[in-house]
Design brief:
By secondary structure, this protein is α/β, with parallel strands linked by helices. The protein is built from nine helices and eight strands. Helix content is 40%, strand content 17%. The protein starts with a helix and ends with a helix.
């Protein structure tokens, strides 16, 4: 092999390795904060105001496609008559990790179920295999499936809300505010007869200004994240940001929204929650801000923490207003 070609390939490999390392650093920064040592819960979910007697695991909301796995969700509910309002729950994990089995999300699902909701806790495809547009389309597909099947589980397809945290909060904001954007085509459900609109949204420590967050958290490494999350750079990237940043969908028609964020959020997301809750209010959209005093990003990781319990109660009050007759 020619020395010049060999040297070029070595340089390319070295550059690629450095970029992968930088990607890893950036993703680590975006992942919600956890204690270095796992803390054992002081008691079960039921001890802290959560209960679901009906739990159904791994229902496919999009059947498997060639080379792809089924997209799954779990159901949390309790015995009841008639139809309860519905919530779709979206886990976090910096768009590249996380799962519907995360214990803090199960707690919130059970807490909502105890208070008269049928909750569908979903998985979605993750980066780098699935770019954020695909993830949003998966989540929108889940809402569509839930509307079509909610009555089978005692849910009302006309009263649906969404809840998510961190990356899941970003995706929940897109569902709540951008479901009418034709740039998003819900995965696998083009002719179901339902849309992915929801009536209310709860956003835990959400990313509202996507590009701003990458720049602030990445400390100058944000350009390296663009291909990972979007797949393109340059004009294509900037065009994508017009759709992928929830801030660009804010107008007087968006869904009533509650923001729940720690004022010590290390990913600098608290100012975004403050800013956009005020913007919605100024537009006449019902919006509320729950401030977790002294709390960092991912403050609900310990479901028994008083602020986790308090924030769940705030969601219940907000959802009751817009989903319960």
């Amino acid at each position: 092999m020619h020395k010049g070609i060999l040297s070029g390939r070595i340089l390319w490999a070295s550059t690629r390795l450095r970029r992968v390392s930088l990607f890893a650093l950036l993703l680590a920064a975006l992942t919600f904060s956890m204690a270095a040592k796992k803390v054992e819960p002081p008691g079960p979910h039921e001890q802290f105001g959560a209960r679901a007697e009906i739990i159904i695991h791994d229902l496919p909301y999009v059947e498997s496609m060639p080379g792809k796995k089924k997209l799954m969700l779990d159901v949390y509910s309790n015995p009841h008559h008639g139809q309860w309002p519905v919530v779709v729950a979206i886990h976090g994990g910096a768009w590249y990790k996380g799962d519907k089995s995360m214990d803090n999300y199960i707690y919130k699902c059970k807490a909502l179920a105890k208070n008269g909701y049928v909750v569908f806790n979903i998985n979605y495809r993750l980066a780098p295999a699935a770019k954020i547009k695909v993830q949003a389309q998966d989540v929108m597909a889940a809402v569509i499936w839930v509307k079509g099947h909610a009555p089978e589980y005692g849910g009302d397809p006309d009263r649906v809300g969404v809840m998510g945290g961190s990356a899941g909060g970003h995706l929940a904001a897109l569902v709540a505010w951008a479901s009418d954007d034709p740039w998003f085509v819900p995965t696998g459900n083009p002719n179901s007869g339902y849309d992915s609109d929801v009536k209310v949204a709860a956003l835990y420590y959400p990313v509202i200004d996507f590009d701003r967050t990458l720049k602030e958290v990445g400390k100058g490494l944000a350009p390296l994240a663009h291909p990972l999350f979007v797949g393109k750079t340059g004009k294509t990237y900037h065009d994508a940001m017009l759709h992928l940043s929830p801030k660009n969908h804010v107008d007087a028609t968006v869904t009533p929204t509650i923001f729940l964020t720690g004022d010590q959020d290390s990913l600098l997301l608290y100012p975004q929650s403050v800013e956009y809750s005020k913007k919605l209010q100024a537009l006449g959209v019902p919006a509320k801000l729950f401030t977790a005093a002294g709390k960092d990003h991912g403050f609900t990781w310990e479901y028994w923490d008083p602020e986790t319990i308090n924030s769940t109660e705030e969601i219940l009050g907000f959802f009751d207003e817009y989903l319960k007759e």
